[in-house]
Amino acid sequence: MVPVLTPDEMAAVDAAAPEPTDVLVERAGAAVARTALRLLGGAYGRRVVVLAGKGNNGADGRAAAARLRRRGVRAQVVDAAGAPAALPASDLVIDAAYGTGFRGEYTPPDPGGAPVLAVDIPSGVDGATGSAHGHPLPAEVTVTFAALKPGLLFPPGRDLAGDVVLADIGLDVSRATAYVVEPDDVAAWVPDRPSDAHKWRSAVVLAAGSAGMTGAAHLAARAALRAGAGMVRVASPGVNHDSALPTEAVGLALPAAGWDDAVLDQLDRAGALVLGPGLGRSAPTVTAVHHLAQAAPVPLLVDGDGLWALGEDAAELLGKRAHPTVLTPHDGEFSRLAGHPPGADRIGAARDLAAATGAVVLLKGPTTVVAHPDGRARLSVAGDARLATAGTGDVLSGVVGALMAQGLDPFDAAAAGAWLHGTAATEHGPPRGLVASDLVDALPAVLEDLGAG
Asked: Are 186 and 252 in contact, with CB atoms under 8 Å apart?
């Protein structure tokens, strides 16, 4: 996993470094210069303008300019505080005006069509949240140091940063508590099917779907099966027979009210319960969800209408559980659980809700945050805007439920599930017109690419 540090955490790492600041600046400048030369495609005759501020960010830019000059580049440094409205003509602009600690509104000079290389973060982007203050210059590449910053991972900062190069300048980031998930991490977490496997060893029960809303249950069931569940049982209140249920899943007829005990009876051989997709919001359903959230004797994932039913009672209800829980809210569901929207600091928001509820919280978004109650966080940047379509969250619920049923720690299962879900869209989904079923169909290929089986 790749470490992620907030600006405050990065400042503490800098302060604790045994090397003096000028040594770190030279290392950072060297990393910027190497990337600049790659972008320029050569050195002699090339023109570079370095927009440099007065802090360490500007010092990094000046160090890069000095190195570029030694390589034959015509590098000109322009003071950010007194920069003209338009920069001199160049082949590359190095944005070293302001770093992750910038406050205020930034209006940059016109780069004149030259590509931009940002130092640490595009100037004007909040390093903690990715919010843009003013009009930051979009970078083709950003060179950042020691660890990724949240502002590089959440939009609009994520989009403004372009390709991100992480440069090691010798700082100790071992105390980071947030990380970006990579394919090798997921490959290590997702278990191989043991040689003595049988269908009940990784069984999932879905309390999902209801009269007129069975599609969510179908998607979650198919996803769970494709993600390794050996058996999937679907309990849909008020549905006596669901002819469209996936062939491999077993449907359980339930009454429209008072169905929670019947679901509990199905959990004696199950490895996980997925509660909520398409359940509806009737008063009997809310009562049943409250009971199951407290009493289910297996790892529990709550999504969709299950989250709506928990509402602001989530912390009290889940505090009574003896088994782990995963909550998978989008922003609207988060607001119902927490009493307020997540805001710009999405890592902090997910951590706070996890601490309050004692559950692993998977906060969906362009960058998905998975937070543990102990403060650890994992980020998945695998997905993109194609996931913003109906039913994709139901697929995610099925995937994470199946991984928990196979014995994964819920924190690992949520992080792995988010990555698999996003990668199914970006690596195997159509560029336009993606629907949730496409994700299910792509899961075997994603798992095959990982070497999981």
From this structure: no
Q: Where in the chain is the domain with CATH 3.40.50.10260?
A: 2-175
At residue 1, does pLDDT exceed 80? yes
Alpha carbons 238 and 258: distance in angstroms, whole number: 10
Torsion of CA 395, 399, 405, 408, to 10 degrees: -150
The predicted structure's pLDDT at residue 43: 81
Beta bridge partners of 96: 52
Domain with CATH 3.40.1190.20 in the chain: 183-450
Q: Are 419 and 380 contacting, i.e. CB atoms less than 8 angstroms apart?
A: yes
CATH number for 2-175: choose from 3.40.50.10260, 1.20.1070.10, 1.10.510.10, 1.10.3470.10: 3.40.50.10260
Position 367 scores a pLDDT of 97
Half-sphere exposure at residue 66, Cβ-oriented, CA atoms within 13 angstroms? 12
Cα separation, 236 vs 296, whole angstroms = 17
The answer on pLDDT for 216 being more than 80 is yes
Say whether 122 sits in a helix, a strand or coil: coil
pLDDT digits (tens, 9 = 90+) for 126-158: 999 999 999 999 999 999 999 999 999 999 999
Structure tokens given for 64: 């890069």
What span, in angstroms and rounded, lies between the C-alpha atoms of 137 and 123?
A: 7
* Sign, Cα dihedral of 126, 131, 132, 136: positive
Q: How is the beta sheet containing 163-167 ordered, strand by strand?
A: 74-79, 47-52, 92-96, 116-119, 141-145, 163-167
Instruction: Report which secondary-structure segment, H or E, holds 95.
Output: strand 92-96
What is the pLDDT, as a whole number, of residue 338?
97
CA-nearest of 216, 252, 265 to 397 is 216
Give the DSSP per-residue string, 358-383.
Answer: SSEEEE-SSSEEEE-TTS-EEEE---
Cα(18)–Cα(37) distance, rounded to whole angstroms?
Answer: 29
Residue 266 φ/ψ region, left for φ over 0, alpha for ψ in the -120 to 50 degree band, beta for the rest:
alpha
Give the pLDDT mean for 190-199.
71
Q: Is the pLDDT of residue 243 over 90?
A: no
- Examine the pLDDT at 206 and tell me if it is beyond 60: yes
106 pLDDT higher than 80: yes
Query: In CATH, what number does 183-450 get?
Result: 3.40.1190.20
Give SS3 for 341: coil
